[in-house]
Amino acid sequence: MNIVPDTSVVIDGRVSEHVESGDFADATIYVPEAVVGELESQANDGRDSGWDGLSELQALATLADDGEITLEYVGRRPDAVEKRDAGEGEIDALIRDTAAEHDATLFTSDIVQSEVATAKGIDVEYVEPRTEDTTVESLSIEDFFDETTMSLHLKTGVRPMAKRGELGDMHYEEIRDEVSTETQLKEWSQEIRNSARASPDGFIELSEEGMTIVQFRDMRIAIASPPFADGHEITAVRPIAKTELDDYEFADELRDRLTDHQRGVLISGAPGAGKSTFAQAVAEFLSKADFAVKTMEKPRDLQVGPHITQYTELGGEMAKTADSLLMVRPDYTIYDEVRKTDDFEVFADMRLAGVGMIGVVHATRAIDSLQRLVGRVELGMIPQVVDTVVYIEAGKVEKVYDVKTEVKVPEGLMEEDLARPVILIRDFETGQPEYEIYTFNRQVVTVPIGADEDGGRESGVDRIAKQEVEREIRSIAHGHVEVELRGRDTAVVWVEDDDISQVIGKGGGRISDVENRLGIDIDVRTFSERPSGMPSEGAAGGGGGQPGQIVTPEVTSRHVIVPMDGHAGETVEVQADGEYLFTATVSRGGEIQVSRGSAIAEELEQAIDRGKTITVVPS
Predict the structure, then answer these.
(1) Are strands 356-362 and 264-269 parallel, antiparallel or unpaired?
(2) Burial class of 409 by CB neighbour count within 10 A (0 to 12, 13 to 18, 19+)
(3) Mean pLDDT over all residues of the chain?
(4) How does residue 539 score in pLDDT terms, banded at 50, 70 and 90?
(5) For residue 268, which of 167, 187, 363, 412 is within the disulfide window of CB 3.0 to 4.6 Å?
């Protein structure tokens, strides 16, 4: 009897079973090199099927040594293209050719392989594929969790660590004295992968060389290994709180707002603030309020009920997922997380198609999440894409913004011909405007409203106007330029003697063009005309005349850090050449950290790049 097994029965261990039962006694077993190549490829990818198949080949070798069978390896190995196209039947075709060549019976548990071989006149013995027990009680790593554990962090050569506590008060701490070994991590990783495949409560979200992401029940588990990581590592995250919308402030108002009609909502906050927990509460509320709700996630880790379908990338692109969802026509879609330009574009496209969208965005201030749309979505369309911003801090709703467009003169500007579309951001609770976003001199600016009008501190409009006047004049002049605002629509510009004619232009034409663009009357003077004793732009100070401490900020990959040793806990103003930038509280470590990418950080980095003197003044 001649037998050619295919990959399916080798993986299942069915060949050695048939030999030991006597069904294949004294048979000659021809193992195609195509099967060996496929198993080797699977094992190299870390897949259990490959290792199971190689173990079966070793068992067959032992049976051959004992004289139970004759074992031969025949045929050719599949090339890279054939391995890549294994799902298209390329390797199965090589195995059928081997069976025909050796006048052998093809042994398989693949029904498609069996039917094709029968159609081609090849003898076939088909066995039902073996199914595994899908009951998985628990994972070994669950022993590390208690009721306060949000995430577990295991790495070779390091004591087990965990984040434990409550939302807004998490601590990263050691939880065991014993150092994790590579053997332990490999065993736990294998158990996690096997359980995800076998259990209906789990699935493998991503499988790449060096990284596997698994969803098992309520845990999202990332398994990293060399060369992607510098060592074997397991990170398991789970929610520690499940909330309802009623648990949050403004619950009644938000319920009415969300059910009035489909909205565009951004849920923002710092990492670990509780954004996803709030998003889950909103999703559950909307579903119970008779709305069809779906999610878009990569990876899928929102903890929602079975009536809410969770989608991930289709063909590696969220844009394809969005196209499919538009056919499903959900009332609301939860998009977790909106980070890259492609994400914002997909979010906007679905919102403009009439789907209610709720996006989860990392931001250190409520206004920062809205500013991330600038440049990614046409300015006038932003309120149609996002009309509500919810800022979460320490698991609570800290701020809610209402976003609308009005045609008006921006706050602080006087000329009626300066009226333009303005995005007005109001506090949802008080109805008071807090920010305006509009185009000023061909640039999109975000201006805070309600700054001090007494002259002790420049308002947001004053700062923007001053920066724009300075930018315009610097583009004309060659030497030093300083700007002094004398009112809402008047400024004095100080330039070098050699530059004044260049700035004013023939018949005053050049400065008139600048005035018309900015809507500000500009008086151009030379530094030689400046009264003695008048402070220059670079003088340290501000904040009501108090002396300032000159500092040298450090720009890292994630933060701009302002050193303030000896001032922990103090509230201070950060200034650039005497111009107010922002107010902050010095941390216990004696520094101010500003996340890069935020509006504050960009303004601070621009000041540093321009060589301005950064000072810190007690608030």
Answers:
(1) parallel
(2) middle
(3) 85
(4) very low
(5) 363
Q: How far apart are CA 409 and CA 415, in angstroms?
A: 7
| Other residues' Cβ atoms within 10 Å of the Cβ of residue 402 | 17
Fold of 245-448: Rossmann fold (3.40.50)
* CATH pick for 2-126 out of 3.40.50.970, 1.10.287.1080, 3.40.50.2000, 3.40.50.1010: 3.40.50.1010
15/58 Cα distance (integer angstroms): 12
Residues 584 and 593: beta-carbon distance below 8 Å? no
Per the CB < 8 A criterion, the answer to whether 493 and 524 are in contact is yes
The predicted-structure confidence for 474-493, as pLDDT tens digits, reads as follows: 888 888 888 887 766 788 88
| Burial (0-12, 13-18, 19+ Cβ within 10 Å), 271 | exposed
Pair of tokens at residue 481: 């330029």
Say if CB 420 and CB 439 are below 8 A apart.
yes
Spatial contact of 267 and 360, defined as CB atoms under 8 Å apart? yes
Which residues are 440's β-sheet partners?
Answer: 443
**Per-residue pLDDT tens for 210-267?**
899 898 888 889 999 988 999 999 999 887 767 888 889 888 999 999 998 889 999 9
Contact partners, residue 279, CB within 8 Å, separation at least 6: 267, 302, 334, 336, 358, 360
Give the integer Cα–Cα distance in Å for 370 and 267: 10
Size of the chain in residues:
619
Percent of the chain as helix, strand, coil, to the nearest 5: 35, 30, 35
Q: How far apart are CA 353 and CA 348, in angstroms?
A: 8
- Cα–Cα dist 600/427, whole Å: 20
pLDDT at 387 over 80: yes
CB 279 within 8 A of CB 304: no
Q: How far is CA 396 from the centre of its chain?
A: 21
> What CA–CA distances, in Å, run from 277 to 140, 332, 398, 512?
26, 17, 14, 55
Q: Which two tokens stand for residue 217?
A: 């029940």
CATH number, domain 140-237: 3.30.450.90
Peptide linkage before 227 cis (omega within 30 of 0): yes
Residue 543: pLDDT above 50? no
Find the angle CA(412)-CA(418)-CA(423) to the nearest 5 degrees. Answer: 70
* pTM score of the predicted model: 0.56
What CATH number belongs to 460-529? 3.30.300.20
The burial class, CB within 10 Å (0-12 / 13-18 / 19+), for 456 is: exposed
- State the Cα–Cα distance between residues 93 and 89, nearest whole angstrom: 6
Confidence of residue 461 (pLDDT cuts 50, 70, 90): low
- In three-state secondary structure terms, 83 is helix
**What are the distances in angstroms from CA 412 to CA 386, 449, 451, 489, 598?**
25, 9, 10, 9, 24
What is the per-residue pLDDT across 53-79, written as a single tens digit (0 to 9) for each? 999 999 999 999 999 999 999 988 877
Q: How many CA atoms lie within 13 A of 282 on its CB side?
A: 33
133 pLDDT above the threshold of 90: no
Residue 540 is predicted with a pLDDT of: 38
- The answer for residues whose C-beta is within 8 angstroms of residue 50's C-beta and 6 or more apart is 39, 40, 41, 42, 43, 44
Longest Cα–Cα distance in the chain: 111
Q: Work out the average pLDDT over 120-128.
A: 92
* Helix/strand/coil for 329: coil
If you count DSSP H runs as helices and E runs as strands, how many of each does the chain have, helices first? 18, 32
